[in-house]
């Protein structure tokens, strides 16, 4: 009898700052263009894929969805929820969001933390992340 191994489904989740400052003074409003790439790098279809990105700015002035390759997204409170749907083997989905806001303390900060989940017919729920992307250095205010 031959047993076939089940190859696990999995995600690749990449978050990048494609435009905007990587350093800024404290309490200074800045605008960043964020991209999140979700790819099915496993060996099977993943259904009901959902990405949640918790925005970590201390002050959120504006959130604008610039583009989305698949599905639909909403912004509520301080979180973006993106319902992607199904991802075939090797398929990638990309969302691009423009964020405007500021941080109220000095140090290295992440603009947000993204996680992704989906359903596999054998394993049930699979999860990817967290992805934070680049950190932003918030500097002492210059008077």
Describe, in plain words, how this protein is organized in 3D.
It is a single chain. By secondary structure, the chain is mainly β. It has a single domain, classed as Sandwich (Immunoglobulin-like). The protein is 0% helix and 66% strand. The protein contains no helices and twelve strands. The protein has strands at 11-19, 23-25, 30-40, 46-55, 59-68, 72-76, 79-87, 92-102, 107-110, 112-120, 124-131, 135-139. The strands form three sheets. The protein has a five-stranded antiparallel β-sheet, with no helix packed on it. Strands 1-3-8-5 form a four-stranded antiparallel β-sheet, with no helix packed on it.
Mean pLDDT: 90
CATH topology: Immunoglobulin-like
Number of helices: 0
The count of DSSP E runs of length 2 or more, i.e. the number of strands, is 12
Unreliable sequence segments: none
Reconstruct the topology from this structure.
Blueprint: E1 11-19, E2 23-25, E3 30-40, E4 46-55, E5 59-68, E6 72-76, E7 79-87, E8 92-102, E9 107-110, E10 112-120, E11 124-131, E12 135-139
Parallel strand pairs: 2-12
Antiparallel strand pairs: 1-3, 3-8, 4-7, 4-10, 5-8, 6-7, 9-12, 10-11
């Amino acid at each position: 009898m031959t047993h076939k191994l089940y190859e696990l489904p999995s995600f690749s989740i990449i978050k990048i700052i494609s435009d905007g400052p990587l350093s800024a003074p404290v309490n200074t409003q800045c605008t960043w263009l964020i991209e999140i790439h979700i790819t099915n790098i496993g060996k099977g279809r993943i259904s009901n894929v959902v990405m949640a990105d918790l925005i970590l700015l201390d002050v959120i002035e504006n959130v604008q969805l610039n583009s989305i390759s698949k599905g639909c997204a909403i912004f509520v409170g301080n979180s973006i929820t993106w319902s992607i749907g199904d991802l075939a083997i090797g398929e990638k989905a990309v969302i691009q969001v423009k964020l405007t806001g500021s941080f109220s303390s000095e140090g290295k900060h992440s603009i947000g933390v993204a996680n992704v989940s989906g359903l596999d017919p054998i394993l049930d729920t699979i999860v990817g992340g967290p992805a934070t992307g680049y950190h932003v250095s918030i500097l002492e205010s210059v008077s």
